[in-house]
Amino acid sequence: MSEKKKTASGVGGKGIGDTCIYDAKTLGAPKVLVLGVQHMFAMFGATILVPMLTGLDVSTTLLFAGLGTLLFHFLTKGKVPVFLGSSFAFLGGYAAIAPMTDAAGGAMDNAKLLPYACFGVACAGLVYLLLSLLIKLFGTGKVMRFFPPIVTGPIIIAIGLTLSQSAIDNCSSDWFIAIVAIALVIVCNIWGKGMVKIVPIIIGVIGSYVLAAILGRVDFTAVKEASWIGIPIHWNQTAFWALSDGDASLLITSVITIMPIALATIVEHIGDISAISSTVGKNFIKEPGLHRTLLGDGLATIVAALFGAPANTTYGENTGVLALTKVYDPLVVRMAAVFAILLSFSPKFAAIIGCMPTATCGGVSLVLYGMISAVGVRNIVETQVDFSKTRNVIIAALILVLSIGIKYSAAGSVGFAIGDLNISFSGIAVGALTGILLNAMLPGKDYRFDDDKPSGTGVDFAVRGR
């Protein structure tokens, strides 16, 4: 990794074999800024989609996605190239507390209910902090032995595959524009030279966006109506307002309904950190430590929710960008966070991005989501998971089938009732929890977590001698 080389693209970097890995010092400030913009584009569509679906404020969401990312980087010693964007896992919780439609399908005034849902999400972030403390006290190994590659690999694969529906749905709005975006990303990444090779996402986004505008397929009405500067925080949309409103029953209901979702998102967090470790080739679970990444994710979620933004989560879209560009320097991701913060104070510029064709987001996402699943496959291959063992086949099979099957079922989730409360779990949550339990219970475990000897995939599970 330390060997300097000149690549065919003409940009210096560090690499092994024909894989070139770039850093900020090698690339220089102008290119780092462009790469930061690319990461911002990668997260933007999904990040603003959550407030659009729930009724939360888009500008508030951008502000705390950026601030949450910077907080995460501070707590993880600036070592993990993670962007924290809006979490889709809590959509069911928001819907349970603040439904967006009434029985007739008309819009409801849920402005008073959303702050209560935000309070529940903030409490869910406390679960991250508790687990972070337990890992700090008892060690990563005692936790990570429940997450070997036979569990994390299929989870990572399932994360990419379950996201694929949204990419296809977005592409379906205009397949021509989507295919243009996909083609530009592929051509630039495979045949591009120099900077073109490492910013394929931006080129795909801008190229397809401009083409859609030329063809008259973009409605810029929202841009004309938006103001240039605005404050992204609104008191009556924060969890603090809910506390001052004083409806204790609704506060308790929100906590009971939403807090358990954290058990599922924590599993997804570990899978995401494993995916990023695999992509980058560094053991982030060992250093800076899983307790730090959980602490960063949890605190970012708490702060965001308290001020009326969605829960934060490590973003697979940006992991896909890392895999595609081979630029793993966390500084690039921090630049994206700064851009998100700046954008949050400009409703007009945010509207420009918000007017981006749905098909453009779909085309780019199609590539990125596929990259996530490919990283999961790589995780399984490089850690040499033994699929001649029936236990391993069963674990992987159930994780994949439950995760994908539940996602695409009529209900889209699995739920149960506690009194008048309905709690639902996503397919990823059910599949992951099933895999963890089966791996713990079934005989024949032949692995141990070795956090002192990170492998090329970032997380090493050495096989015990028989």
Q: How large is the radius of gyration? A: 22 Å
Rounded to the nearest angstrom, the distance between the terminal CA atoms is 33 Å
Mean pLDDT level = 76
Give a count of the beta strands, DSSP E runs of length 2 or more: 9
Beta-strand residue fraction: 5-15%
Largest sheet: 3 strands, antiparallel
Q: Which bin fits the share of residues in helices?
A: 55-70%
What is the H/E order?
EEEHHHEHHHHHHHHHHHHEHHHHHEEHEE
Order the strands across the largest sheet as they lie in space: 1-2-3
**Low-confidence stretches at least 5 residues in length (pLDDT < 50)?**
1-20, 100-108, 452-466
Shape: globular
Walk me through what this model shows.
There is one protein chain. Strand 6 (414-418) and strand 7 (421-425) form a beta hairpin. The two termini are 33 Å apart. The protein is 65% helix and 7% strand. It has helices at residues 24-27, 29-54, 58-75, 91-97, 114-138, 140-144, 149-172, 175-191, 195-198, 200-214, 221-225, 239-245, 248-258, 261-280, 285-306, 316-325, 330-344, 347-354, 358-382, 390-407, 427-441; strands at 4-6, 12-16, 19-21, 84-86, 312-314, 414-418, 421-425, 447-449, 461-463. Helix 5 packs across helix 14 (261-280), helix 7 crosses helix 14 (261-280) and helix 7 (149-172) runs antiparallel to helix 19 (358-382). With 466 residues, it is mainly α.
Record keyword descriptors for this entry.
single chain; 466 residues; mainly alpha; 3-stranded antiparallel β-sheet; 65% helix; 7% strand; globular
